[in-house]
Specification:
Elements lengths: L1 E3 L3 E7 L2 E9 L3 H11 L6 E8 L2 E5 L9 H10 L5 E8 L6 H19 L2 E3 L3 E9 H13 L3 E7 L3 E9 L3 H12 L4 E4 L2
Antiparallel strand pairs: 1-7, 2-3, 3-6, 4-5, 4-6, 8-10, 8-11, 9-10
Helix pairs in contact: 2-3, 4-5
């Protein structure tokens, strides 16, 4: 699964109607609502949207015929394997009716165009842990952890060494534990957070 690096926009004109999509990363339902409120255009004929966070999702056709706007936008999100993303597509009516199929293609296509152009980042499950080690092992352990893309997010010192707060990919936990054990000759203690 992926999410978006930052807010992205795209626009297209279809039979004189202008469709503008705005997509962005969101953390939770409250952030989704705030994103939609911030980017909705009150002067547009329709502000249709969809968002997905894990198994949760919502969508709105905002006055368009049922199923012709929100569902195609959600399908564009799901089609690109995105999560924690909200997409808003505004429409300025150009005077030509598009029909149900045309609306579905227009809303879904504009959302897909926007999402396709967006820079994506992989969503990875992370594990937080504390690592207690002696001063003699500290520099080497920190250097090797950074080489393995393990983030050191906190550091406190004791009389004999340091306690590091580290964050790593969940699928790398066993590898990191083995590395720390080897580097410290079994003296460092790693405690995984729940």
């Amino acid at each position: 699964m992926f999410t978006l690096q930052r807010v992205e926009t795209a626009a297209q004109e279809i039979k004189k109607s202008r469709f503008v999509a705005i997509a962005g990363p969101i953390a939770d339902e409250q952030a989704a609502r705030a994103f939609l409120a911030a980017h909705a255009d009150p002067t547009a004929n329709h502000n249709c949207w969809a968002w997905r966070i894990g198994q949760g999702y919502r969508f709105s056709d905002d006055g368009e015929p049922s199923g012709t706007a929100g569902k195609p936008i959600l399908a564009a999100i799901d089609g690109q394997k995105l999560n924690s993303v909200a997409v808003l597509v505004t429409r300025r009516f150009g005077g030509i009716l598009l029909g149900s199929g045309g609306l579905m293609r227009a809303y879904g296509g504009t959302a897909a165009l926007c999402l396709g152009a967006a820079e994506k980042v992989e969503l990875v499950d992370r594990q937080v842990a504390t690592l207690a080690c002696e001063f003699t092992d500290l520099a080497l352990i920190k250097a090797r952890l950074l080489n393995r893309k393990v983030a050191v997010t906190g550091e406190t010192f004791t009389e004999t060494g340091a306690v590091l707060t580290i964050e790593m990919r969940k699928d790398a936990v066993d590898e990191v534990l083995a590395l720390v054990t080897d580097l410290s000759r079994g003296k460092a203690v790693v405690s995984l957070a729940n």
